[in-house]
Amino acid sequence: MRGLLKFVRGKRMLVALVAVLTLMAATFIRVTDPPFLTAVRELTFDSYQQLFPREYHPGPVRIVDIDEASLKKYGQWPWPRTRLAELTHALNEMGAAVIAYDIVFAEPDRTSPGLVLQNLSADNLSDLESFKSELAKLPDHDVVFAQSLEESPSVVAFAVLTHAGGRLPISRSGFAFGGENPASFLAPFASTLPSLDMFQTAASGSGGISLSEDEKGGVVRRAPLIFTDGTKLYPSLGVEALRVAQGASGVLVKSTGASGEAATGNSAVTELKIGSFVVPTTAKGEVWVHYDTDRKDRYVPVIDVLDKTKRDLITPLIEGQIVFVGTSAAGLLDLRTTPLGEVVPGVSVHAQMIEQILSEDFLTRPDWADGAEALATLAIGLIVILALPAVGSIGTAVMGAVIAASLVGGSLMAYLKNGLLFDPVFPSLAVLFVFVAETTLLYIMTEREKRFVRQAFGQYLSPHLVNQLEEAPEQLVLGGEMRDMTILFMDVRGFTPISEQLTPTELVSFLNTLLSPLSDIIQHEEGTIDKYIGDSIMAFWNAPLAIKAHASHACRAALDMLKKVDELNESDAFGFKARGLKTQSVHIGIGLNTGEACVGNMGSSRRFNYSVIGDAVNISSRIESSCKAVGAELLISDATRRAAPEFAYLEAGEIPLKGKSEPVRLFALVGDESYRHTEGFRLLSKAHAAMVSAMRDGNAAEAALHLEACRKAATGRQSPFYEVFAAAIAELAEHQMLSGSVPEEGYLPLGAAEQEPATPMIDQT
Which three-class secondary structure state does DSSP give residue 224? Predict the structure, then answer.
């Protein structure tokens, strides 16, 4: 047994150690945040957008699309810049708030007259000088396009390069800083591919069109708002378009160190203010793009814009709009994958980014989200580790499932209500991993315990109790131990007359029918069946497993046993009425006592039993045998009453015991907690106490008056109890008539012999 207890303690420590180490490993992974974890987290956020994409509100953002139909009409790309000038003029005349080209015009137009002249020679043209003279009269295409840009609110583009050798763009936007200058801590680009200087100078602004793509999946989840060469800042195409559309002169960048921003030790951009719009950003100055599906409502084909017959139809779609000019033609290779799983033109990403800024429908991931998720992983893991020994595997699994569901639900609600991005997956998976590691090891070690428990106790304890011992073997204390216990004795009243009317087979069937459900009730209330003695049951509580409020469990079991006997009688479960036996119903008596007793394995080395002995057991047996004399079905000792005061009791008498200077006070247990608080019991208890007091004083007349009040308030099954009191009061009255006096120290109608059963509540002094 010591070996088992040592094993149990060692098992607990080992399981806890493995679980804690597993949890620490999971927390370390979360803190270091390897790429695979970032990928899983972003897939979770993608699923949110797929389930609940941004609601589309037709807003002042439009895409003028160089689509397949436009290419078919105007020829392959690149078009002459005069065509783009025509497009720019048309959009300006329609009232576009800004015209932003998602196209880098890095080289001169090869169809311009000047470039054509450079490539002409006498070998391919007979009258070269005359032709050159005519070409020289034509305007340069790039100049024409530059003039259209200058006459319109326009933005041209530059692309960020990963290699050196490019040129820096011309920045037309001013930048102000709140906090640290982002140019000092953001990763600088190597170089850029800008549009021609004449276009950058002519246009109202110049912005970067490069997007932040996942290196492996190619999914565009975030878009940079600012770029840097390490010295200066440059806006993105969308930021510049929004600035120009509002007529703002610059952009305010807020970062760590600014007023209201906590100094975390890590430099980071927190938000941009573009005109009247404030945009929350990632630490790198990016914005999470909150996508809507790529719907046709955003697009207007170039062919429709340039078709003068449709001018009245198209103008309302362009007027007051932030217009992005881009291409959806597959052959021009400007296609991107979004978290929604769609492949969209790159210009759609810029347009949707501006839509969410205008509607202030942002997705944000707070800078403290990583720390919160790591802390959640650690905290929930500790809850699971602590819960497993307390509530078991199933309870812990349910608790873990509820916590995981709460994390997912909370994360989803944060996304839907506030656009916040929190990862519920890794904390849930980490806790699951901890739980699996913990329960697997626990299962292996628990199986070893269970084999020992079944071998040691299966021969003399009920399967129900064996199962409890298997679940909590550390509570076993065998070999003799003094414990505070509650002991129950139950006996069938009038068993001899019953047995005389039954054959041996019928008698066994009767006992099984009676004792089986009564035993089930005892075990249901966590009691241990000690033994069956013919028609009697001996049971006890608080061993081998410690039971809180064991006296209350015993009282509740005794009351339920009486109810069960009533049900069996009512349904004629014993068949007495059907067979016309003289005995029509069965009655039992139950005695309960609480006190210290010795419990453990008792018997010989070859045959033993787990049982309890001591004065508390003997007193319980005497209490049960006193039920008939007192007229009560269920008697308990004063010790049990004090241990379970919540039940309904009536004072019943005293038992004088051999070798004891003080008798044992008895109480009839007549109801549970709910009955104790009824008006009927209140009246009965008051009348009963008054009757007992009168009997103590030797006042038979007064006692008789209170007896009548008790009879009126008592239930039917309490009638025998008061018949015994009535006999005692009558004997008291007779004594007074014969002697003409009241006993000096009370009255004992049944005598004071130590072996006699109890009397109704009369002082035994």
Answer: strand
